Amino acid sequence: MLSAMKKIYEYEMTLAEWIGLVVILATPYLTVGVIYTISHRESMGQFASFEFVTSFVQSTLTWPWLMFSSVLCLS
């Protein structure tokens, strides 16, 4: 068991492999974030303004918190 763990810890990754791993892990998160943001557009500003862009990016990146906070604050 320890030899298997040691083998995993000694594995070296190149920069390209790290970038690929980040892209693979971030794609589903950002896809769901964009879908959530598009379906909850009413809270954003006017289209093609700086406020719209910042609101879109913020909503896309923080969609889990926004989704659960809106469920918890229905009172």
Describe this structure in words.
The protein is an all-alpha fold and 75 residues long. Helices cover 73% and strands 0% of the residues. The protein is built from 4 helices and no strands. The radius of gyration is 19 Å and the shape is elongated. The relative contact order is 0.09.
Number of helices: 4
Structural class from helices and strands?
Answer: mainly alpha
The general outline is: elongated
Mean pLDDT equals 82
Q: Oligomerization state of this entry?
A: single chain
The H/E string reads: HHHH
Number of strands: 0
Poorly predicted runs of 5 or more residues = none
* Major β-sheet profile: none
Helix fraction by DSSP (H/I, runs of at least 4): over 70%
Query: In angstroms, what separates the terminal alpha carbons?
Result: 51 Å
Rounded Rg? 19 Å
Strand content: under 5%
The domain tally reads 1
Note the main attributes of this structure.
75 residues, mainly alpha, elongated
